[in-house]
Amino acid sequence: MASLLLLFLQTAAAAPPADLTIWPEPKTVAEVEFTDSQGKPRTLGDFQGRIVLLNVWATWCAPCREEMPTLDRLQARLGGADFQVLALSVDPDGEQLVRDFYADIGIQHLALYIDETAQANRSLGAYGLPATLLLDRQGRELGRKLGAAEWDSPEVIDYLRELMATPQGH
To answer: What is the pTM of this model?
Structure first.
């Protein structure tokens, strides 16, 4: 049944948005660890039950800087009980640098998550930045995009709404 829903999503939208590569079957994702804005340890498992757009980025990455406002607008538009943009900074210089960056470019809707060790890059096989993974409600990877994208485009929003409307989110 999961394969039928995935096939439906792949054919319902003419093509995956933002050059997102959708896998034929959902893939298991490594359980990466990071901290939130309060310094509390978090994992991807904390977000199960929602569709997650996991974006691995850094303040020194020019394409990351360009796409962050689109991720912020996407979270403002769709974020809630069914969907979460999880912007995971891999800046080794820590939380204050990311807080300052958020303030400088006006990020208002994205929560602050940091992996100062950048272990997430290795665990997720995300060797370029930005790297974005689309996760289903069970935390499995449905697809990914390496490089920047316009995440708040109408095509992306429509695609994510279709995905959120499926019972299992895949």
So the answer is: 0.89
